[in-house]
């Protein structure tokens, strides 16, 4: 993630971003990412080993990256060279690094792992994934799939190509926006292969390689990966404890950013919800700087409040239709396996995005679109079921954390899928590394930011059923005891019947 040091304090200092192929990472950059290796109960070499393994596992340190010389890294970390030598040796022995005399040491991934993909892995017996917020499908989805299959016969008489997306689907998406307070025609909708695909298309439409795009800091990791793949420079802007509608426009003025990627509905990972006044100020102030707002509404349907106003989509507040591009999808409200999303944009942007999609994909899959039609026809019932379950699970996770880990603090969000926890110490990476020994998969706080930021944070989804959350928090407490205090415990044996 490329960053810029400006005189506005909300913009993060320049630090290392992505490294690819056989390019090396400097000692200063790696030390910044690893943090203080003296933190926790483990010896420094083991903490360093674990930190590098986590960096490789989540893609911040791509396979093939050459590690810095042992002496240089030791100086930056303020440890002995023996400590770094031992860490590099353990990485090689465990399959996380290779070395060749005279060529140095470079990181690798053990067999079967995929480099830098922010998505849940295969389900493993006894392992609880707390790294991703991916709820199971609603009970009605299998019925809706069968109904969609019945619709397929009518489509099979044609050629099946339609880069604009099925009219029936675009009508329903447009009607949903209209019902939420922003009149929308079907031609304003471009159907995509999921919300992330929609973000990719929006970025490609609005920014060229080398252009600057603002992102909230912290933010959704995959969105930053999309920006990097597009060759644009992501500019993280600190938003915690600040007014987003103030800090983002100021950063836009200082960086001449072409676009800004934001989540105004239960931001990932903080859970912050912007009201209508804040949305209006944000859109108008960014527009005055010539910055187009890309609004990610993936969580917009996940409002867990039992009362309160329903805020308008950001598109309703834009000064002009060209000042905002909205993306959305069905993965969170329905199911992650339903890779169906959309872009809502002004007529010119929508037409160009549709042409861009046609060049790369020709047309979205027909069957998925038919399923999406059925899902949107049943959306009120699906949403009621999803919201009720998430509200109960959120409250359950809050109770369990307050009982088992009372030193951790967080703001209970009004919606979305996760808690953003303050651990009170810079141990996020260490917890993530130790968690694997206890059948837990965690996402370290720095994965949601740039460099060494958020080493004291952990994002915890409340998408699992209550019994699984209870077991997950119990394991978290054991991991925390190992890392920061309490009795050193043995790893929790996998629970064979617990498959999540």
UniProtKB/TrEMBL annotation:
Keyword annotations of the record: DNA-binding, Pyridoxal phosphate, Transcription, Transcription regulation
The HTH gntR-type domain, residue ranges: 42-110
Matching Gene3D superfamilies: Type I PLP-dependent aspartate aminotransferase-like (Major domain), Winged helix-like DNA-binding domain superfamily/Winged helix DNA-binding domain
Molecular function as annotated in GO: DNA binding; DNA-binding transcription factor activity; pyridoxal phosphate binding
Transmembrane feature ranges: none
InterPro entries (alphabetical): Aminotransferase_I/II_large (IPR004839), HTH_trans_reg/aminotransferase (IPR051446), PyrdxlP-dep_Trfase (IPR015424), PyrdxlP-dep_Trfase_major (IPR015421), Tscrpt_reg_HTH_GntR (IPR000524), WH-like_DNA-bd_sf (IPR036388), WH_DNA-bd_sf (IPR036390)
Domain of life: Bacteria
Pfam families per record: Aminotran_1_2, GntR
Entry-linked PANTHER family: HTH-TYPE TRANSCRIPTIONAL REGULATORY PROTEIN GABR (PTHR46577)
Family designation: In the C-terminal section; belongs to the class-I pyridoxal-phosphate-dependent aminotransferase family.
Annotated protein name in UniProt: GntR family transcriptional regulator
Organism: Pseudonocardia endophytica
């Amino acid at each position: 993630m490329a960053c810029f040091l400006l005189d506005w304090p909300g913009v993060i200092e320049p630090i290392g971003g992505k490294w690819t192929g056989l390019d090396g990472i400097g000692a200063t950059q790696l030390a910044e990412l690893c943090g203080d290796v003296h933190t926790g109960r483990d010896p420094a070499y083991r903490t360093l080993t674990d930190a590098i393994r986590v960096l490789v596992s989540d893609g911040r340190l791509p396979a093939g990256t050459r590690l810095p010389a042992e002496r240089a890294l030791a100086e930056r970390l303020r440890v002995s060279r023996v400590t770094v030598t031992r860490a590099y040796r353990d990485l090689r022995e465990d399959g996380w690094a290779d070395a060749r005399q005279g060529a140095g040491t470079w990181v690798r991934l053990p067999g079967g792992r995929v480099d830098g993909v922010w998505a849940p892995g295969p389900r493993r017996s006894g392992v609880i994934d707390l790294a991703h917020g991916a709820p199971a499908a609603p009970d009605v989805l299998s019925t809706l799939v069968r109904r969609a299959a019945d619709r397929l016969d009518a489509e099979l008489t044609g050629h099946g190509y339609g880069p604009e997306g099925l009219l029936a689907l675009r009508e329903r998406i447009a009607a949903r926006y209209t019902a939420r307070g922003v009149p929308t025609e079907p031609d304003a909708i471009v159907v995509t292969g999921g919300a992330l695909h929609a973000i990719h298309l929006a970025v490609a439409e609005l920014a060229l390689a080398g252009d600057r795009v603002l992102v909230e800091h912290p933010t959704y990791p995959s969105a930053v990966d999309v920006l990097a793949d597009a060759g644009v420079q992501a500019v993280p802007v600190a938003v915690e404890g600040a007014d987003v509608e103030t800090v983002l426009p100021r950063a836009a003025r200082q960086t001449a950013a072409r676009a800004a990627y934001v989540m105004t509905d239960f931001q990932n990972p903080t859970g912050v919800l912007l009201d209508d006044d804040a949305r209006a100020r944000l859109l108008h102030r960014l527009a005055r700087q010539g910055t187009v707002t890309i609004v990610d509404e993936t969580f917009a349907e996940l409002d867990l409040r039992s009362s309160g106003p329903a805020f308008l989509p950001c598109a309703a507040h834009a000064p002009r239709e060209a000042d905002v591009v909205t993306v959305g999808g069905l993965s969170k409200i329905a199911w992650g396996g339903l890779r169906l999303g959309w872009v809502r944009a002004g007529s010119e942007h929508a037409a160009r995005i549709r042409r861009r999609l046609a060049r790369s994909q020709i047309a979205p899959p027909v069957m998925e679109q038919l399923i999406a039609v059925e899902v949107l026809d049943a959306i009120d019932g699906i949403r009621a079921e999803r919201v009720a379950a998430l509200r109960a699970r959120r409250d359950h996770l809050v109770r369990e954390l307050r009982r088992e880990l009372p030193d951790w603090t967080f703001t209970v969000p009004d919606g979305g899928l996760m808690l953003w926890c303050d651990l009170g110490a810079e141990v996020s990476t260490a917890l993530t590394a130790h968690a694997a020994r206890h059948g837990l998969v965690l996402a370290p706080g720095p994965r949601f930011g740039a460099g060494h930021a958020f080493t004291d944070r952990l994002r915890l989804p409340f998408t699992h059923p209550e019994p699984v959350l209870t077991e997950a928090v119990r394991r978290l407490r054991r991991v925390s005891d190992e890392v920061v205090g309490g009795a050193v415990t043995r790893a929790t044996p996998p629970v064979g019947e617990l498959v999540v």
